[in-house]
TrEMBL record:
<keyword id="KW-1133">Transmembrane helix</keyword>
<feature type="transmembrane region" description="Helical">
    <location>
        <begin position="506"/>
        <end position="525"/>
    </location>
</feature>
<comment type="similarity">
    <text>Belongs to the otopetrin family.</text>
</comment>
<keyword id="KW-0812">Transmembrane</keyword>
<feature type="transmembrane region" description="Helical">
    <location>
        <begin position="352"/>
        <end position="370"/>
    </location>
</feature>
<keyword id="KW-0472">Membrane</keyword>
<feature type="compositionally biased region" description="Basic residues">
    <location>
        <begin position="7"/>
        <end position="17"/>
    </location>
</feature>
<feature type="transmembrane region" description="Helical">
    <location>
        <begin position="537"/>
        <end position="557"/>
    </location>
</feature>
<feature type="transmembrane region" description="Helical">
    <location>
        <begin position="419"/>
        <end position="443"/>
    </location>
</feature>
<keyword id="KW-0407">Ion channel</keyword>
<dbReference type="InterPro" id="IPR004878">
    <property type="entry name" value="Otopetrin"/>
</dbReference>
<feature type="region of interest" description="Disordered">
    <location>
        <begin position="1"/>
        <end position="24"/>
    </location>
</feature>
<dbReference type="GO" id="GO:0015252">
    <property type="term" value="F:proton channel activity"/>
</dbReference>
<feature type="transmembrane region" description="Helical">
    <location>
        <begin position="193"/>
        <end position="213"/>
    </location>
</feature>
<feature type="transmembrane region" description="Helical">
    <location>
        <begin position="88"/>
        <end position="108"/>
    </location>
</feature>
<feature type="transmembrane region" description="Helical">
    <location>
        <begin position="308"/>
        <end position="332"/>
    </location>
</feature>
<keyword id="KW-0813">Transport</keyword>
Amino acid sequence: MLGNKVSRQKPCHHCKSRSAAAPPDTSTIHYEKFWLYRHCSSVQQGDRQAQKAGQLFSGLLAMNVVFLGCAFISSMIFNHIAITLAEVWILLSILKVLCLCWIVYYLLGTSRQPHAVLHRDSHAGPIWIRGSVLLFGSCSVLLNSFQIGYSTILIQCKSKVDILFPSIDILFICTQALFLWHHSKDCIQVQHNLTRCGLMLTIATNLLLWLLAVTNDTIHMEIESQLREVEQRFAGKALFSPLCNETTSCTCPNTTICKVFQKGYILLYPFNTEYCLVCCSVLYVMWKNVGRRISHHHSSPIKAKFKLQGVVFGPLLGAVAVIIGICVFMLYQIQATGSVPNRQVFVMYYSYYIVLLPLMSVGAVVGTIIHALEKRELDTLKNPTRSLDVILLMGAALGQIGMCYFSIVALVATDPVDLLNSLILSHSVLLIFQTITQNVFIIDGLHRQHTSSSKEEELKEQQIREGYDQRRVSMIELGQEIRKVSLSYIHTYSNLTWKRRALREISFFLVLCNIILWVMPTFGAHPAFENGLEKSFYGYSTWFVIVNFGLPLGVFYRMHSVGGLLEIYVTA
């Protein structure tokens, strides 16, 4: 009776061998059941405990670094005399040097050890996210180059830290981009704790760089707005202003190269915030994959290829939306950035959004309904990349949704009947609805399993191509094979293709729409601050904080939505 209980426990292989060699004594069986079985099964439990302990310790390290950096940056904002920007730069430079040391050690030491990378996560680090790292990293390097050139010209009123900090930043950006491009898919199997701590330290450093970029962007936009007000007041009243004398004490000389540095710095500044956010997402996936073992049948999935076939209306409508959006953006940049912004340009800008957002919402709702009609099973396999995609979509959407609610409260409390106010109010409501419907569509699509018929079609197409290469196959057999595949394709097309085609049309249209909605705020269209309505309601400083925390998250949301929609398009 007791022996039957022991056999049902299914001990490990070593336990079976030892129990087979032991005499069938009751005391011996009792001893193996309560001590040796626990000893054999404790290997996996200890593995999980060590993994949780390493994740906990590295998470605590990152939390303390972030809190320390936030304390420095907050002290600089509220008491810039005690804590200066140069001291914050020194702290971040130390963190960058530590991250550089660990990245170099990983590239030259950890990753080259025997059995270091036995598995690679095929879902992690897709080409579009790595391309974004290279694109935003290149723009950030160019941004720092402009900052170095600008500080060099104004060396009489700039410190050496103004040149040293962007120089270290260029080295950090290039090394990190190289690291993420080659090793974003790694599931490292050695030096777990050191790798987790290094990844978390790098994540914390990027978060602090993003936070500093947001606060610097706030200060930059505040100075620009104050200079505009001073210019208007000086042109209208011709009075001397102490603020004007203070802000123009260290201005750019009237030279061409200096103007290029200044305009280039202002234009490329938003890319730095996006680079930090993208790097944090990739590094987090790497941190989750440390010590992860992937089964053989999930390690090499069939990769779907991007094909622009069978879609017409999605690319056509999306191209129209992009062209109109570029025209609206150019007119906005010309008129709204002048000394006296034109009211009509804000009406044009918000009218474009009011027309586009409902179309995007309808497309997302129809796509969600098609997902339900397909009745494809949900993919419940553990996937850290997909989980992170969902978290990033929901978290980044909170930025622009929160900003929209602040606008709604301000506009309803003031004068919602006014034309411009009613347009901004409608824009805020439609943006909230569009964001929610698009999130539901993307998240539902990411959790759907790939259809088996599409894989069968690809295999049959591959068989036909191989048949062309095999000269021994007769033309009669080849013709029969082509007819069989053609009949199968017609049968599949008549039964299933209309749903897939609709999904591809919708996802491609949403991809182009999200691209233009990403381009417009990224390259300087900030009507939420420049229209002055919410700023007059909440106050200058409060609305600056709301805009500069919500706007970068909104830009990141559009960029991340493009990746999710492309995956839905490819797998449809």
